[in-house]
Every structure is written in structure tokens, then in C-alpha cells.
Amino acid sequence: MHPCAAWPDNGRSIRETLDRVGDKWSVLVIGILAVSGPLRFTDLAQRVPGISQRMLTRTLRHLERDGLLSRTVYAEFPPRIEYRLTTLGDSLRVVVTALAQWATDHDSEIDIARKAFDASY
After folding, report:
1. Other CB atoms closer than 10 Å to residue 83's CB: what's the count?
2. Which of 4, 37, 41, 82 minimizes the number of CB atoms within 10 Å of its CB?
3. Which residues pair with 72 in a beta bridge?
4. CA 84, CA 120: separation in Å to the nearest integer?
5. How far apart are CA 92 and CA 86, in angstroms?
6. Beta bridge pairs of residue 40
7. Taken in order 11, 13, 14, 18, is the CA torsion positive or negative?
8. How far apart are CA 106 and CA 31, in angstroms?
């Protein structure tokens, strides 16, 4: 039986969770924090290629809400804020790393398939 079929809400909650942890920005943020450890917003923004400040802010808030990362504000001037994976977020390390590696390993094959598909239409 598929895991979604066993959920009492017809898999709604598992779909919401997969939607959150499976989106491209969350995967990149989790992967970067898993490798680098705690980072400030600006450092994280520099390491996530192509993400806007608004999207990074939204992604961090969603991940924090879901308990996957923590936000620590240090009483300094100017305030220093760091983001780090929680234990729950760190438990995604292997999955996210494997997904990113798979995407890297098969990028050229996917590109060829897309070009072939697009040429047939």
C-alpha cells in the first residue's frame, strides 16, 4: 500500500509536507545549511543561486514554522541573526544530498530529453 493511502486525511498532510521540503528553494537551503552549518541571511543568500531576498525570507519562515530550522537573534548592534538546521531538519541531510546529487548526475540526460521532447512539438 502506498504511504499516502494510509493517512486518515487522504494524504493531505503528507502532500503539504512534501510540498514544503521538496520545493527547489527548501532543498537548496537545507542542503547548504547541512554542509555549512549556521549562516546569516546574507551569507545564505549568496550561496543559494538565483533566489530573491523575498523568496529566501519566505522559505526560511516556512522552514522555521515546520521545525526544520531555527533562527537565533544575537543581542548585538547591529543585530546578528543566524539560521541553522534543527535536529529534524538535519534528518533530511541524506535525502536532500542524494536528491541534489541525482540532479547533478543526470542533468545532461534531462537536458537532452527536454530538447528532444520540445523538438517533437
Report:
1. 22
2. 37
3. 82
4. 45
5. 10
6. 82
7. positive
8. 18
Q: Which of 31, 4, 29, 33 is nearest to 17 (CA)?
A: 4
Residue-level pLDDT at 7: 72
- Give me the helices (H) in the chain, please: 12-22, 24-36, 41-47, 53-65, 87-90, 93-105, 107-119
Q: Which strands form 80-85's sheet, in the order they lie side by side?
A: 39-40, 80-85, 69-74
Nearest to 35 by CA among 79, 89, 103: 89
| DSSP line for 73-92 | EES-SS-EEEEEE-HHHHTT
Query: Cell numbers at residue 48, please?
Result: 543559494
Measured CA to CA, the distance from residue 20 to residue 34 in angstroms comes to 17
List, as one string, the DSSP characters of 94-106. HHHHHHHHHHHHT
